[in-house]
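Hi R.,

Here are the chain sequences for the assembly we discussed:
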Amino acid sequence: MKVSPLHTKRHIKDALGNASVRKAVMNATDSTKVSRQKIVDQIPYWEILRSKAHSIKKDVIENLDKYLLQFEENCAQNGITVHWASDAAEARKIILDIAQKNKVKKIVKSKSLTTEEIHLNDFLIENGIEALETDLGEYIVQLNEQIPSHLIIPAMHLSRKDIGKLFADKLGVDYTEEPVELLEIARKILREKFLYADMGITGVNFAFASSGSFCIVENEANAHNTLSLPRIHVAVMGLEKIIPDVKYLPYFLKLLPPSATGQKSSTYVNFVGGPSRTKYGEGPEQVHIVILDNGRTKVLRNPKLRETLFCIRCGACLNICPVYQQIGGHAYGWVYMGPIGATLIPQYLGEKEGKLSPFLSSLCGACYDVCPVKINLPDHLLTLRNKIVESGNSKAAEKAGFKLWSFFASRPRLYRFASWIPAKLQQLFPSEKAFPVPGYYKKRKFARFDKNGFRKQFLEMKNKLK
Amino acid sequence: MSSRELILNRIKDASKFPSEIPSVGFDFENEIKKEIAAITPKDNPGLWLQFQKELEAISGEFYSFFSMDEAAEIISKLLLELKIEKIGISKENICNDVAIKLKEKIASLEIVSPVELNAEERKKEFAATEAAIVHPAFAVADIGSLVFNYDTTGTSYPHFLCDNTFVIINENQIIANQFELFDKIDVEESKNMVFVTGPSRTADIEKVLVLGAHGPRRLLVIKIKNQIERGSL
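And here is the predicted structure of the full complex:
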């Protein structure tokens, strides 16, 4: 299934009409929210921890060139080859060149949104190289020819029945919907793949400028197998993933796991400090790191919106978002979704392609409250909405509608009269479903206007308080 | 112009626009440290109790013994129970010493050591081995975590490729948290590391937690009170 932010409206309709997807997303986000809160409640210094992380990220984003150069220099000392990729095409070419130069035929990958962003798998497969996802959720969505629907739980939209059918169809195994058995099937297949892969590709969670090393956080041990078993390791890193020093890592390791999965700590934090085969006889002979721009420096140009580069991809803003909970991840049409995706899509892909994304929000502010690095997402969504209107990418009818609304809203008497009309008009339609609002989803009821109206109720309340 | 220069120029260009990101005002480092100190156990037994509680909460198993003999006793019992005939060890002497004790108890037990095996041989050997004895540099109390430095262990395969991991650790190897860890270690000498917190897991199918994703299914931490004896295999 190919998705695109340009087809967001269609994706939303599909999602709202699919009871199974809605149930799966609602259950998974609800349970993750509860687990997150349980852990956060055990950390009395949570709020100052968020502020500290914000201040570290602020320093990084405001001094990015300094830290990247320091990182590059220290990587070289550790024997890590650094590549710079201006865009997705260049990153893909760099990785293909490394693979071809080293006669790589089989690649295992651990979950990396950055590699999703550059459409790496399809490109490698087109070039005759097997590229296999090894995180269970990623393996499932790759088998299903989809992109992840969540930053952390890629197959969140699928039920165990869906996955059981998928495994039976694609892997030729007996149908089962038991998670333990499904995992066992995947584990057995992937264990062989790990042992015989020539190259492992991972993302990067945090890279350390002062030591020229980086780390990958995970639960399944697939990332460790990916970086330690093949003879070549390639890590793809968005240029914003740097932090000044590994000593700052504990702050982020306290914030990331509760926000991502509701765990106090992730099961594994893997540190990579260079090709280890020469050092202690195993692990990769070569370690490459691809530093990717692909639109990030464009984001950096905006003095306020550059804060969106603080994101550590935990997914907490997705789980808490009432809009994401209803429409799921594919509705956003890109690899980043939810409130953070809604801010990144127009910034990375342009205001034309991302013209609907910032509007996929109720602006309730919950995403800001849970963001572990304190990104002011509601504020940025508003800024982006404004930019989209100013750049002429909003609909002419919508613009005219708001002009009309502002005409009435600045004339109280006229406004009162005008707002009385739809309430009266609605009384002509006996069914809640039949109220003809263009674009309103036909399977949902339209609420009835209250007979008393807001103004009347507000005045009554005001008088009572007096 | 190379992509490197292009990207660095773009960053320089962007920095001409002064940042409007609000500042948090002051550094919270000391406040955080104070808050952490207030909830950290003050002595070694307290830290181990905290470690045990956290480890068990994430399905790890914990044993506390006086000597290495007792540790070997429980490991041999479990190996016999699980019908495991081959055990992998990492490079430290302590793993070797435990292996010797195990061999005294189960004569037929095969020991797989990374020493003298090349990378390809190691992979295959450890992938065909069901249990491993490993030795971390530290146990981290507040999250029930273990710290392994490969430059010392010389291998990570026993821990990641074998289904059952027996972790042998001395009583004095506990630290309070990761902040203390980074104050303690030489960062330059600790670039190839892993933090391990419980057995491998996934909840990717309907958020149902399943242990043993692509790494060990069981993680048993055995704390030993007295000094470790030396020996050779």
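Chain A touches chain B through 95 residues (CB under 8 Å). The first helix of chain A runs from residue 8 to 16.

Let me know if anything looks off.

Best,
T.
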